[in-house]
Design a protein that fits this description.
This protein has 81 residues and is an all-alpha fold. The protein has one domain (5-70). Helices cover 47% and strands 0% of the residues. Helix 3 (23-30) packs across helix 4 (37-51). The radius of gyration is 12 Å and the shape is globular.
C-alpha cells in the first residue's frame, strides 16, 4: 500500500493551532477535482476548522476523520465534501 506524504499531512487528529494552518492545503487537495471548487473549499474549510482534519484523497475516506463525516446541513445531508 502506498501512502503519500500529502495524505499523512492532511490526516491529523490533534486539536492545536499548528494543524489548523494545514486546512487550506488539505482542502485544496480535497477539492481539486470538484466541479465547483470555490464552494467545495469553503465547505471543506469550515469542516476542517471544526474537526482539525480532512480525509485523504478527493472523495470518500471518511473513516479517516469521523468528525468530518458526521457534520450535516440543516437538511441532514453531508456538509463536508
Amino acid at each position: 500500500m502506498y501512502i503519500s506524504l500529502y495524505e499523512i499531512n492532511i490526516c491529523n487528529y490533534a486539536n492545536d493551532e499548528n494543524n489548523r494552518a494545514d486546512c487550506g492545503v488539505a482542502c485544496e487537495g480535497r477539492c481539486k477535482l470538484s466541479s465547483r471548487p470555490r464552494l467545495c473549499k469553503r465547505a471543506c474549510g469550515s469542516c476542517c476548522d471544526k474537526c482539525s482534519c480532512v480525509p485523504p484523497g478527493t472523495a470518500g475516506n471518511y473513516e479517516a476523520c469521523p468528525c468530518y463525516a458526521s457534520l450535516t446541513t440543516r437538511n441532514q445531508t453531508r456538509k463536508c465534501p
